[in-house]
Amino acid sequence: MAQKYFVFTENKCLLFSSYQQDSEQSVWKKKDLNAEKLWHLIHSQLDEVIDLGIPFELFSKAFKRVVAAGGLVSSGKNLLMIYRNHKWDLPKGWMESEEFPMQTALREVREECGQLDLTVTADVPIITYHIYRTKSKFLLKETHWFKMTAAPPHSLSPQSSEGIAKVEFVPHEIVSDRLENSYPMIRWIWESIQGQNEFIG
């Protein structure tokens, strides 16, 4: 059975399977799969959800892959959220050399949000993919999201050097309202965990 992959841009969601049964008949050939061409194709389309008709493995090889990790942090029936660059987001950051994803997630949550008493509640992360462009590169960011709890009392401190203006524990019932001013990937993460009672309470 094909595995489904979701890859996000700032405002779009790309759909992929782990294989393409008729890939030899696809309009895409391996030589065509360069990041710049794919980037311009994606951003020339009006649809918010796009199926390019190629397997994820081929698509991902066109981009330089980088790894990050973050936390899906709950305290009671509240979700830890940050307000960065005028958008509501979740704490995450780059994985440093010789770190494991879980170590990165714990470190980044504390660096971005404050010295919290964190406990990881699920060893297996949710993994997301996000493509974006820097001045000279097209990157595919693979982010490992770990479910955590934060024991009160909380001492929240936004990391202003990273553009974070606010850190808040947001009641679950209004998270969706906050996410109207967020990114498709963050909305997808919240939707994917809403039915998981051990997290949302």
Descriptive account of the structure:
This protein is α/β, with parallel strands linked by helices and 201 residues long. It folds into two domains: 4-61, no CATH class; 69-126 and 147-200, Nucleoside Triphosphate Pyrophosphohydrolase, CATH 3.90.79. It has six helices and eleven strands. The protein has helices at residues 35-44, 56-61, 101-113, 172-178, 184-193, 197-200; strands at residues 4-8, 13-17, 49-51, 64-74, 78-84, 87-89, 92-94, 117-120, 126-133, 138-151, 164-171. Strands 1, 2, 3, 4, 7, 8, 9 and 10 form an eight-stranded mixed sheet that branches. Mean pLDDT is 89; it is low at 21-25.
CATH architecture tag of the largest domain? Alpha-Beta Complex
What about the largest sheet? 8 strands, mixed
What is the number of beta strands? 11
SS-based class: alpha/beta
Please compute the radius of gyration using only Cα atoms: 18 Å
Hey, roughly how much beta strand do the residues contain? 35-45%
Quaternary form: single chain
Give me the CATH fold name of the largest domain.
Answer: Nucleoside Triphosphate Pyrophosphohydrolase
| The CATH homologous superfamily of the largest domain | Nucleoside Triphosphate Pyrophosphohydrolase
Shape descriptor: globular
Cα distance, first to last residue? 32 Å
> Average pLDDT value?
89
> Percentage of helical residues?
10-25%
Report the top-level CATH class of the largest domain.
Answer: Alpha Beta
Note the total helix count.
6
Could you list the spans in which at least 5 consecutive residues all have pLDDT below 50? Answer: 21-25
- How many discrete domains? 2
What letter string, H or E per element, gives the SSE order?
EEHEHEEEEHEEEEHHH
